[in-house]
Amino acid sequence: MTKKYLIGLGILSLLLTSCNEKNKTAKSVEKSKTVTVSLGSKPKSLDPAMYNEIPSLSIVEQIYNTLFQIDSNGNIVPELAESFEYITPTNLVIKIKKGVKFHNGEELKANDVLFSLNRMLQKPATQVMLNTIEKVDVIDDYTVNLKLKEPSAPLLYSLSYPMTAILNEKFTTEKNGNIATDAMGTGAFKYQNWGDGEKIELTTNKDYFGEKAKIDELIFRAIPENTSRLAALETGEIDIATIAPIDVQTVEGSSDLYAVSFSTTSTEYLTLNNLREPFTNKDFRKALSYAIDRQSIVDAVYLGKASIAKSIVNPTVFGSDQTVGTADYNLEKAKEYLEKSQVTNKTIKIMSNDNPIRLQAAQIVQANLKEIGINAEIETVEWGTYLQMTAKGDFDIFIGGWVSGTSDSDIVLFPLLHSSYKGGAGNRANFDNPEYDKLVELGRTSTDSSDRLVAYSKAQEILAEETPIVPLYYKNENMGLNKRIKDFTPMPNTIHNYAAISVQD
Q1: Which residues have C-beta within 8 Å of that of residue 460, sequence separation ≥ 6?
Q2: Is residue 222 part of a domain?
Q3: Main-chain dihedrals φ then ψ at residue 336, nearest 5 degrees
Q4: Are 321 and 433 contained in the same domain?
Q5: What pLDDT does residue 345 have?
Q6: What is the DSSP track for 458-500?
Q7: Domain check: are 259 and 270 in the same one?
Q8: Are strands 217-221 and 34-38 parallel, antiparallel or unpaired?
């Protein structure tokens, strides 16, 4: 073998090694710029105003912006708005930031805000949040005036929730309003692909008006089963995931992962169909509430990462009163109320979506009710069917949850239980109580914090007495993350900002 040949092999070897190292580096860089998140359920729609459900809004949050946002101290600050001023208690003037671009390159103008707000007032899910708005007027290209029917303390909080995101009028009109699977906003990430909702791909918006994302691509994957989600997290297939309480210890024991567990603004509860026998009977409803051993659910299902709920309003939310609830587990009282109800047909159905955690909780409720002679059958349906059936009132009881996205009691007490929002709009219990209605209306129209607190406390007293729904527990959110993920800040409403994260391989 000649010296020249050996030298040639050496050079070739160096070149190949260099190329391999470059390929490895390129792959590492490529990986580091892509983050994959799994929140479990497949989102129902990417139209912000359609559904108040976390899987959808978690993605909406990345693509769109709202006029306002809530800062880390719970204060309202402008987002798309530049400034705002109440000219009178019922006239709110909002100036819009100049130079904000939609993902199609068009500048955000006042007409887009007008179009978006008017559209929200026609959608049941957002109309309940904004029905205090009587009219929206455009003053100039960057200024709108909101004329209100009455003063509204929660309005700015509602205008900070992802459901009230601002749309591009031209794009939405061209799509005939059908933007469920074709989203386009002003947010830190741009929509790329729906993937049947199983794999939704977003890319960084390099023209974002705010602090730009530190990653290039954000992918959301629907992996409903907890075990599958954990396995994908362990193999590096996904980077961030909601995990079951039982999996927290596994994640903490991994050298490649870490866990985050935090309090939220959510409440898990049973909704009773107040229009269907025997749930029209208040004594029967109270019997159910006293029969449920909530602490058993907290201990067995959540492994202590939850607390007993005394009110439908989470204690972290403005207006919550934790002194009025009847969350005590008391079999004797349960039996007394059941006998007092004189209900003879004691076979009922508990509906749950196919969330393993909720199913476990439903099974404990089922066992509890059996102790007082009530036969509860569990009906499991997939998420979309669950939303449709509960909206139509096609259920006895369903186990569900509600996140107070605005951290104000209004977003809980009004849409969930006000008589004007029966059915799919929010009040799926079909509760109807004039005194309750007046109190939550007062809480929404008063601008005096102390008056609002009194109104909300009295409203919660009525709920404790009438028991149209049965609060169960306030759960923690548990998330597992790959250690390459840095700067993740969890949000109590569980709708996180993934633009703020960075990666370190």
Answers
A1: 311, 312, 313, 320, 321, 324, 325, 413
A2: yes
A3: -60, -45
A4: yes
A5: 85
A6: HHHHHHHHH-SEEEEEEEEEEEEEETTEE-----TTS---GGG
A7: no
A8: parallel
For the entire predicted model, the pTM comes to: 0.80
Is 29 a member of any domain?
no
pLDDT, residue 32, reads 55
Residue type, 32: S
**Burial code of 351-382, b = ≥16 C-beta within 10 A, e = fewer?**
bbbbbbbbbbbbbbbbebbeebebebeeeebe
Q: Are residues 226 and 112 in the same domain?
A: no
Residues 437 and 483 in one domain: no
Q: Are 47 and 488 in contact (CB under 8 A)?
A: no
- Which pLDDT belongs to residue 130? 92
CA distance linking residue 129 with residue 351, whole number of Å = 27
**Per-residue b or e along 230-239, where b marks 16 or more CB atoms closer than 10 Å to that residue's CB:** bebbbeeebb
Name the 3-class secondary structure at 253. coil
Q: Is residue 25 part of a domain?
A: no
Among candidate residues 89, 150, 163, the one with its CA nearest the CA of residue 121: 163
Determine the pLDDT at residue 23: 46
In this predicted structure, what is the pLDDT of residue 15? 44
Q: What is the CATH number of the domain that holds 189?
A: 3.40.190.10
DSSP 301-315: TSTTSEEE-SSSS-T
**Are residue 247 and residue 297 in the same domain, yes or no?**
no
User: Which bin fits 197, alpha (ψ -120 to 50), beta or left (φ > 0)?
Assistant: left
Q: Which pLDDT score is estimated for 29?
A: 40
Beta-carbon count within 10 A of 6 CB: 10
287 and 219 both lie in a single domain: no
Domain match, 456 and 434 both: yes
Cα–Cα distance measured from residue 67 to residue 186, given in angstroms and rounded to the nearest whole number: 11
* CB distance 469 to 460 below 8 Å: no
Those residues with Cβ within 8 angstroms of residue 117's Cβ, 6 or more apart along the chain or in another chain: 130, 133, 136, 144, 146, 164
β partners of residue 267? 402
Same structural domain for residues 488 and 459?
no
Low-confidence ranges of the chain (pLDDT < 50): 1-19, 21-30
Query: What is the dihedral sign for C-alpha 203, 204, 209, 211?
Result: positive
**Domain of 229, in residue numbers:** 35-45+182-263+477-503
User: How many C-beta atoms lie closer than 10 Å to residue 18's C-beta?
Assistant: 10
> What pLDDT is recorded for position 367?
97
pLDDT digits 0-9 by tens, 418-441:
999 898 878 999 999 999 999 999
